[in-house]
Amino acid sequence: MADVRKGVYPCYENQFQIDTAASGATAAMKTIADCESFGVSFDNGVEEWTPFDTEGWTRRLLTAKSITVSVTAKRNVGDAGNDAVAALAWVNGRGAEKDFQWTFPDGTVVKFAGAVINVTNVGAGDSTAVAPLEFEILSNGKPEVTPAA
To answer: How is residue 80 annotated by DSSP?
Structure first.
């Protein structure tokens, strides 16, 4: 039987991986080194209407979803995952899309195929600070969720 985690856990047990393979090559998911913090934002589209038979009460239906994962890391030159993210600072269009996955502490994996990687800082900061790597992962279609075994 699988060892399923229960209870609370520290945030550092979440891990992020990015496809480091060259375009057209077999996927090579690698962990992104030196990630320090992250935030998650679900952007939901809700349609609202107020029909006569609800006596003024609004009805709603969730009709759209997207997710943004904002990550703060340190720039780690030579780490395959960190280098793959940093390289995307200089590209536009489809070139800024990579497969990305989020592995939860319980083993659940959320894979974002062709996620848009929006690099917002690659090395800028105080002269005595460690160079940052800051980026957002923006879903690009429905992610694939694989529950823990």
So the answer is: H
